[in-house]
Amino acid sequence: MSNKIKNILIGKPLANEELKGEKLNVFWGLPVMAGDAISSVAYGVEEILWVLVPAVGSIAYRQTLFVAGAIVVLLLVLVFSYRQTINSYPNGGGSYTVAKENLGELPGLAACASLFVGYVLTVAVSICAGTAALTSAIPELAAFKVPIAVFLLGLMSVGNLRGVRESARIFAIPTYIFIVSMLVLIATGLAKVYIFGYTPAASFEIPQGMGDITLFLLVRAYAAGCAGLTGVEAVSNAVPNFFHPAQKNAKKVLSLLALFVLLIFGGTSFLATIFHAVPNYDVTVLSQISLQVFGNGVMYYILQIATTVILVMAANTSFAGLPTLLSLAAGDGYAPRQFALRGGRLGFSNGILTLSFAAGLLIIVYKAETHDLVPLYAIGVFIAFTLSQLGMLAKWIKSGEKGRLGKALVNGVGSFMTVVTVVIIASSKMLEGAWISLVFIAVLVCFMKMVRRHYDDVARQLKLEAADIAKETEILEVDKHMIVIVESLNKASLKAINYARHLADDKNIVAFNISVDTNGSEKIKAKWEECGIPIPLVVKYSPFREIVEPLAEYIKSEEHESNPGDMITVVMPQFVVGKMWENILHSQTSYMIRRKLLHDRHIAVITVPYVLDE
Amino acid sequence: MSNKIKNILIGKPLANEELKGEKLNVFWGLPVMAGDAISSVAYGVEEILWVLVPAVGSIAYRQTLFVAGAIVVLLLVLVFSYRQTINSYPNGGGSYTVAKENLGELPGLAACASLFVGYVLTVAVSICAGTAALTSAIPELAAFKVPIAVFLLGLMSVGNLRGVRESARIFAIPTYIFIVSMLVLIATGLAKVYIFGYTPAASFEIPQGMGDITLFLLVRAYAAGCAGLTGVEAVSNAVPNFFHPAQKNAKKVLSLLALFVLLIFGGTSFLATIFHAVPNYDVTVLSQISLQVFGNGVMYYILQIATTVILVMAANTSFAGLPTLLSLAAGDGYAPRQFALRGGRLGFSNGILTLSFAAGLLIIVYKAETHDLVPLYAIGVFIAFTLSQLGMLAKWIKSGEKGRLGKALVNGVGSFMTVVTVVIIASSKMLEGAWISLVFIAVLVCFMKMVRRHYDDVARQLKLEAADIAKETEILEVDKHMIVIVESLNKASLKAINYARHLADDKNIVAFNISVDTNGSEKIKAKWEECGIPIPLVVKYSPFREIVEPLAEYIKSEEHESNPGDMITVVMPQFVVGKMWENILHSQTSYMIRRKLLHDRHIAVITVPYVLDE
C-alpha cells in the first residue's frame, strides 16, 4: 500500500545500470545547473533597491545601475575562475573538493558547511520569491504565502526524488520561457520609453530619503544584491552529471549562464531605474515593472507565472547540488554514510529529504518573507566562493605547470573580490541574520569532525587481519548458555522455549520470569509444573517493577552458572502484530531488553517471532 | 546520568510493598480529591457573568445569584447521589465502573471517554485560570501566559510522578490557605458594604446590554457556570486511595467539599453582584472583587497567589483521577496495558504523562485563554455524570434491596438534572467547541472497542492447553539453518559467524552478502578466500540497492535447501556504539531486517552485538 503510493509519486525503482542514462547535455543541463543564477534577477535587483530607496529616495535610481554593474563584474570574474576549476577537476570540483585538496581539511569542511547553508537558503529564498511573484499578481493569495511555499517545496522534493533527468525535463521548458519573456520585457520596456515616448510613473509612493548617497550605502546595496550570485558553484560541482565531453559541456553551460545573467540582470536593473520601482512586502519590483510595460494583460500574467515557476525551479540547482555535496562528504567520512547511498530512483534521496526539511523549516519560521531571509543567505555562498578561489590560487602557486601565472592571476583576482565581498556582507548583514548562518557553519564543521573521528575509530576497531581469525574464534569455545524470557506461559513463549531446546542442550537452558506481584509468581510456577516443561524455571520478583535490571543482575550473579567470557544467549518471544498501531498495545519489553543487554559483549539476543493472525 | 536526573526530579523508586503507605486520610484527602470543585469558583462565577453582562448590562447582576443558586442545587444533588455510589462501590465507582456494570459495555466506554475529556480539560482550564489569576495581579506577565501555563503543567506532572502522598503534602497547605482567604474575602466584603457603608463602583465600564433577560439567556449562563462542577467524580472513583474506613472517609471528604463550595461559590457570586465585576480577558472577576475589598495591599496579593496555587493544584484532581481511570480501563482490556502498570514511584506514570501531554497541547493551541477553553469543557464531565446517575438508577431498579425506592429517587433526580444539563450545555455550547469534545469522545470509544478486540484476539491465539504442548514442539524437529548477514568482512561479522558455528553445524550455515555495486562483490569474495573461512559465502548483487528484499527472496528461493516449515535463523552482527547520537552514523539495516523478516513465522533473528570502545 505505502509502496504503491511511493511508486506513483516517485516512480518505479531504477537499477544501478540505468545511472549512465541520467546524464545531461548542454540544452537540458543549462536549466538544471544555472536556473538559480538566472532567476536571481527576480530578487537581486529588488534587494539593491531595498537598501537604497528607503535611505535616499528617488536619487537611488541613479546609483542602482552602478551597483548592479559591480555585481555583474563579480559574476564574470567568478565565471572565468570556475572555468579553470572545471578544467582542473573533471570529477566535480566544488568548493569543498578544491579547498580540501589545496588548503587542507579544516578549510574544506568550512567550505562544505558554507555550501550546505548556501544551498538550503537558495531553496528557501527562491521558493519564497516565487511565491511572492504569484501573490503579487493575485493579491487574494497573499494570506496563504506559507502554505503555498510549503506546497511548492513538496513538489520540488518529489520531482527530485524521481531522478535527475526527469527533473531536467520538467524544469527546462519554464526556464526557457522565463528567459524569452524577460528578454521581451526588456526590449518592450526600452522601446516603450525610448521609441514610443511613454513617461513612466512610479506605482508606489517613493519614500523621502533622509540621507545622502554614501560609499557605505553603496557597499551595503552591493552586499544585498550579491544574494543573486549562487549557482556558479553548482555547475563546477556537477561536472560528472554532464554527457561526454563533460568538462566542455559544463564550461558551455557556464558561459551561457554568464551571457543570460548579464543581459537579464543588467536589463532589469536599467528598467527598475527608469520605471522607478519601489520595494515593498506586497508587490515585487519585477511585478511593478512588467505591469507598467505590459499593462494588466495576458503578457503580465505569463511573465509572473514564468517568474514563479523559474524561481521554484531555481531551487532545483540546490536539489542537484546539495545531495551530491553530501554524498562526497559522506564518501570522505565527514557525513553519515546514508548520504552516500543512492535511492530507488538513483538520486541521493537522504540528501534531498534533508534539504527539503531544512528549507521547509526556514520558510515556516520566516513566514515565507524573501526579504527577511536574504540576510542569512549570501554569507554562506561567498565564504564557499572565497575558499574555492583561495584553493585554486594555492594550487597554481604549488604546481609547476606552464602558464600557471596567468591562471593564478585569474584566481587571484577572484580571491580578492570574493574576500572583499565576504567582509562587506559580514559587516553589513551581521546583526540582521548573518550571524545565524555563521554559528550554524561553525557547528556543522564541528559535527563533521566528530563524525569522521567516529568512523575512523570504528574502522580501526573492526579491521581484521588474517592473524586475528584464530584469536577471534577462541572466545566462543565454551558452553552454550541460553536464557528464555517468559512473560507468561503461552504459545509464543512455548515456541521460544522449543527454539532454544533445538539449538542447545536442555541442561544449559533456563526459563526466566520476572513478576511484579507475588501472586503472579505463584501462578506461573503452578502452570509450569502442570505443563511439565522439562527445563527449569527461574522466577524473580521485581519489587520496583523493573524488567531489564533483574535479568541483567541474574546473568551477572553466581546463580547463573556461566564462566566469565562465556557467550550467553537471551531468547525472547516477540509478538508480531498485523497493523502498525497495534504495536502500542504491547509493551516494548523486548526492545528495551535488547537495548540494554546488547551493551554487554558476551550476550547475544535471539528474537523468536510469534506472528498473530489478523 | 539520565537516571540521576530522574531520581532528583521524581525521587528514588518505591517498592510494591510501600503502596499501602501512599493512602490518604480525610485531612490530606480533601485537597487532593476536592481541590477542583472548590477552586472552580475562581472561574465558575466569571463564566456566568461572561454570558449575562455583555448581553444585558448592569441588570445582569440581579440574575447572577439565581443562576449560581441553581448550580449549587445541582452540586448538592450530585453530592447526595455520589454518596450512594461510594456506598455501593467500595473499590472505586467512577462513572466508568457504574455505567459499565449497570448499563452495559457501550455506555461504560462512553462514560470513560467523556471522563477522559473532562479530566484533560480540567487540567487545561484550571492551569489557564491559575495563570490568569497571576497575570491579573502582575500585568507585566500577561505576555507570557502560555510559557507560564506550560511551566506550571510541568511542575504538576513532576509532582504527580513523585507519588500520591507526597503530592497531597505539597498541595494541602495552599488549598487550606485558599479556603481561609476566600472566607475572609467574603466576610470582609460583606462587612465593608453592609457594616461600614462602602459604596462599590465597577472597576471596568459595564457594557450597555442590548437585550432583555430571557429564559434562554439564563439557561446559557447556567450551562457556562456548570464548568465548575467537576471533582465530585474523582472522590467516588478514588475510594481505594483512602485510609480505612475508606468509604466513610470518602463520604466525609465529599460532604466537606459540598460545604465549602456552597459557602465560597455562593459568597463569591453575591460579592460579584454587589461589586459589579465585569468579565474581560485581562483581569479576572475574582481579582476585581478582591482589589475592591482589600485594596492594592498585602491581602490582595495573598489571595491572588493562593488562587493561582489552588487552581494549579486543582489540576491535581485529574492527575489523581485520570491515571486511575485509565488503569481500570487497561485492566479491562480497553486501553493499552501500559496504563495498568505502576511507575517507579507507584503512580501510574503513563497515565500521568498522557494527561500532561494532552493538556499541554490544549493550553498551547488555545493560547492559555480560559474563556476559550470552557466551551469544550463541561460537556464531557456532564455526559459522565449522567451515565453514572442512570447506571445507579438502573442498579436500584434491578436490585431487590430494601429501601431501594428512596435510593432510586435520589439517583432519579440526579439523572433528570444531569440529563437536562447535558442538553442545555450541548445546545448552547455546540458551535463554540462542544462538538470537538463530542467527536473526540466518539473516536475514543471506537478506539477502546478496537483495543479490546485486539487483546481478545491475541489471548485466543496464545492460549495454551496442556494438549498443545506436544504439537507445538513438533515444528522445530528439523535441520538448523542459519544465515549470517555479512556487510563486510570485519571483526563484527567474524564474531557473528563464529557464534553461528557455535550453535549449528558448518554444513547448515551460509554467510550472505548483499552488494550494491559489482566491484564490492568481487572484493568481498577475494577477502573471504584469503581469510579461509570454512563456510560458504553467498553474494547477491542488488541492482535496486535494496538490502532486505534480496535476503527475503533468497530465503524463499530453492537455492536455500530448506523444507517448508523449517525454522530458519538469521544471524546479524550489530554495532553497539557508546553514545546515542552515533547511531545515526550507522545504517539501521539490522533494524529493518528484523522488522521485515520477523513477519515470517519461520524465521528467528539473532543479534550478535559488537561493542565498540569509546
> What does the radius of gyration of chain A come to?
32 Å
If you average the pLDDT of chain A, what whole number results?
A: 84
Q: Provide the structure class of chain A.
A: mainly alpha
In percent terms, what proportion of residues of chain A is strand? 5-15%
CATH class of the largest domain in chain A: Mainly Alpha
CATH architecture label of the largest domain in chain A: Up-down Bundle
Q: What's the order of the H and E elements of chain A?
A: HHHHHHHHHHHHHHHHHEHEHEHEHE
Quaternary structure state of the chains depicted: homodimer
DSSP helix fraction of chain A: 55-70%
Structure write-up:
2 copies of one chain form a homodimer. A 5-stranded parallel beta sheet of chain A has the order 3-2-1-4-5, sandwiched between helices. Helices cover 66% and strands 6% of the residues of chain A. Chain A has helices spanning 2-10, 26-39, 41-56, 60-88, 95-103, 105-137, 145-162, 164-194, 215-225, 232-237, 246-275, 285-294, 298-331, 349-365, 370-398, 404-462, 468-474, 491-503, 518-531, 548-556, 589-597; strands spanning 481-485, 509-515, 537-541, 568-576, 603-611. Chain A starts with a helix and ends with a strand. Chain A has 2 domains: 2-455, Amino acid/polyamine transporter I; 471-611, HUPs (Rossmann fold). The model of chain A has no long low-confidence stretch (mean pLDDT 84). The first copy, chain A, is elongated. By secondary structure, chain A is mostly helical. In chain A, α3 (41-56) packs antiparallel against α9, α4 (60-88) crosses α16 (404-462) and α13 (298-331) crosses α14 (349-365). Chain A contains 21 helices and 5 strands. At the A-B interface, α16, α17, α18, β4 and β5 of A face α16, α17, α18, β4 and β5 of B.
